[in-house]
Amino acid sequence: MPMIHHVFALVGLAGALYASPLDKAEALADCLIKAGVPVDETGSTEYKLDATPFNLRLNYTPVAVAAITTTKHIQDAVACARQLGIKANAKCGGHSYAAFGLGGEDGHLVIEMSRMNKVVLDNATGIAAVEGGSRLGHLAWELYNQGKRAISHGTCPGVGVGGHVLHGGYGLSAHTHGLALDWMVGATVVLANSTIVNCSETENAELFWALRGAGGSMGIVTEFRFKTFEVPEKATYFAAPVQWPTEARALLGLTAVQEFAKTMPAELNMRLFIARRFVNLEGLYYGDKEGLQSVLAPLMKKTNATLALARTGGWLDQVKHFGGSNIDLGHGHEEHETFYSTSLYTQALNEEQLQTFVSYWFKQAKNNTRDWYVQIDLHGGENSAVAKPAVDSAAYAHRDYLLMYLLYDRVDKGVYPADGHTIMANFAANITQGMAKSDWGMYINYPDSRLDQKDAQANYWGTHLRKLQAIKKAVDPDDLFHFPQGVLPA
Ligand SMILES: Cc1cc2nc3c(=O)[nH]c(=O)nc-3n(C[C@H](O)[C@H](O)[C@H](O)COP(=O)(O)OP(=O)(O)OC[C@H]3O[C@@H](n4cnc5c(N)ncnc54)[C@H](O)[C@@H]3O)c2cc1C
Ligand SMILES: *[C@@H]1O[C@H](CO)[C@@H](O)[C@H](O)[C@H]1NC(C)=O
Ligand SMILES: *[C@@H]1O[C@H](CO)[C@@H](O)[C@H](O)[C@H]1NC(C)=O
Ligand SMILES: *[C@@H]1O[C@H](CO)[C@@H](O)[C@H](O)[C@H]1NC(C)=O
Ligand SMILES: *[C@@H]1O[C@H](CO)[C@@H](O)[C@H](O)[C@H]1NC(C)=O
Ligand SMILES: *[C@@H]1O[C@H](CO)[C@@H](O)[C@H](O)[C@H]1NC(C)=O
Ligand SMILES: *[C@@H]1O[C@H](CO)[C@@H](O)[C@H](O)[C@H]1NC(C)=O
């Protein structure tokens, strides 16, 4: 795909006017400058910071990067794109695995949000106003420092609130406190016609519903409003390695983990992390080490895990344990990997499916000498706060799945091999082999860049797709906020 776009771009430069969106660069630059929208100069340091994707396997060339600092800039940038028939996307933390912040293909206007990252907590109500370009670490830092409060979210401090919250937001507080999007109580949005609207459960409720799971397709959120919780006095982060040297032992171990997931207590947040050289149970317990040990005891026995690490500390201690010592990240934070990844949600696997999983793991995946892992989050279950709200209460479609898998395969240096994806793609396909389509899903925050738009929409949004397409038609009929795996208008 990128190759073909480059060819068109060259043909365009050689003669044919407007052969590709990249050829509209000049007209777009004129429009943006006239409107007073700051633009990153191509090749500048700022441009490189803003236009380099997290995943270096997926480099796309924007038609322009608008380095916005105000809501008015966003409205004007959207208007310029609309006038010229150019697709536009917000980019917040730029951490999309498929580079959706860059549009997921060449020739988009990137509306770089990361210079708008104010976080203001109202101590009296516990509601935080958070600008649409903030990163998770900055959010955690500010909420803690302004009032010892937090929302539930993922572990990586460089991830943007924009992409993370608008498409789910699963982390090591989710089993206790739900998804990041469950903490959203309102938002201010620039629509495709440059209008500004507010939305919440009581105002533009359909847009609010759509934002909480498919936000990137609907508009640009300039400000989120989150309710928050008071951070617990102490929490215990832990890692418990397991040794499963044979397929038979891995089968027993996996069976025990998924059984445990069905009824594990709300205070426990855990994932099974399978890497090439080790396997860990790891997570966060809302309570002290003794409490953790007693809750984990039955599982430790069945899996032969050893509690190698269990440290009790304050709120920021665990944030830093999972996210690194410097969490207060802003504009210009740089972090990259080179990889292919895909994802799944399933219920507990039956014995045959478990056998297929283990067989693929030992015979195929273990043979892959790249730096791969399969992370299985214990997402749902009887006591999970993720599973508590009704499935149709927000666009996020997969609350009721027990397990969420991220399958990730990276190279530490150099180029990712052209056929590298087959290892993880086949892993996922082996797991779902024989399952009804309604028995599994995928997570757009862990997107598979190889899906076509039809499959992507079906896998990410399942039974919510029709309603989403109708809302998309109402707010963005011309698909201005297009990306290759976004919601298409009905
Ligand atoms: C190192 C790392 C760790 C991660 N850990 C977790 C984790 O623990 N749990 C988890 O659930 N996910 C995790 N993720 C995935 C992450 O949640 C997604 O990649 C997320 O979409 C990234 O958001 P972003 O704003 O950084 O990305 P971007 O690439 O900037 O944006 C992603 C999408 O959101 C849209 N968007 C961004 N901002 C806005 C806005 N203000 N208004 C409207 N649309 C917007 C973009 O247009 C694009 O479609 C991780 C990713 C990385 C790279
Ligand atoms: C908010 O409350 C916390 C304690 O709950 C306090 O430390 C902080 O100073 C307050 N912040 C403001 C801005 O009032
Ligand atoms: C949206 O809500 C914010 C915060 O409550 C308010 O300041 C703003 O005026 C509202 N904007 C519109 C367009 O209603
Ligand atoms: C745990 O250890 C026992 C005793 O060595 C063994 O029989 C059992 O299979 C092991 N279970 C797992 C999941 O490794
Ligand atoms: C394992 O990897 C080696 C080297 O990459 C390859 O030659 C071999 O066919 C692989 N084995 C299997 C079972 O895939
Ligand atoms: C399962 O994995 C094998 C080995 O990689 C692959 O050949 C096969 O196509 C996969 N099965 C499915 C259903 O994709
Ligand atoms: C902008 O789009 C919204 C959503 O479709 C619509 O309600 C509103 O009337 C439009 N505003 C203008 C000025 O066209």
From TrEMBL:
Q: Which residues form the signal peptide?
A: 1-19
PROSITE patterns on file:
FAD_PCMH
Q: Which UniProt keywords apply?
A: FAD, Flavoprotein, Oxidoreductase, Signal
User: What SUPFAM superfamilies is this protein classified in?
Assistant: FAD-binding/transporter-associated domain-like
- Sample GO molecular function, one term: oxidoreductase activity
Q: Which domain of life is it from?
A: Eukaryota
Q: Which PANTHER family match?
A: BINDING OXIDOREDUCTASE, PUTATIVE (AFU_ORTHOLOGUE AFUA_1G17690)-RELATED (PTHR42973), FAD-BINDING PCMH-TYPE DOMAIN-CONTAINING PROTEIN (PTHR42973:SF39)
InterPro entries per record: BBE, FAD-bd_PCMH, FAD-bd_PCMH-like_sf, FAD-bd_PCMH_sub2, FAD-linked_Oxidoreductase, Oxid_FAD_bind_N
The answer to keyword Signal applying to this record is yes
Xref: Gene3D superfamilies: 3.30.465.10, 3.40.462.20
Location of the FAD-binding PCMH-type domain: 58-231
Concerning its family, UniProt says:
Belongs to the oxygen-dependent FAD-linked oxidoreductase family.
Protein name, please? Glucooligosaccharide oxidase
Cofactor(s) listed: FAD
